[in-house]
Amino acid sequence: MDIAPETPIEFEMPPNLLDAEGNLIVDIYNDNQEALLFPLEDGIEVLYKQGGFGWNYLRGMLVILCWMGFLAAIALAASSFLSFPVAAFVSIGILIVGFSSGTLSQVIDQGGIGGINHETGRKDSASGLDYIALPIAKGLLRVINLVKEFSPVSFLSTGRNITVGILFQAFTQIVLVMGGIFAVFGIWAFYRSELATAQGNQ
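RESULT FIELD:
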């Protein structure tokens, strides 16, 4: 078998390879002189069919609906104490921060914002700004991962099953927890705001 580097290799295995207890023992031999490396995070996997594409696609759309509900909670919370243009700008800004998780992870891994040593890939000495930026980046990344870890695009593109448990967990973390935090803040801000009253001419 010819294996190209940095390319997923898939091949079908017959079902009679399972033993009586349903276990599959995989022995890997490399007769070639070239080294063969399996990353630990996404190395060798055994996939089996579980359901069809239609129901899996529907569950993926429900996860996206949870994302839309969370974005609506952010927009309503912002509009409770800001004008419409500013609230729209704040909502878009939070959405952009959500898509910047790769940059936040890079800042955390490098140990700073600028002045990275290209030989080690990290910053040699942290500045005063780094002591402020790193905790903020870690906190933002932890919050973003609560929402972004449920990505139906990655599940569907790789043929992974979106189970009912994953859907329920996504609804709990995205809508109830994160959306609830913004909803409570919006209710509190709207309750504390002073509403203008129209005075009629006497």
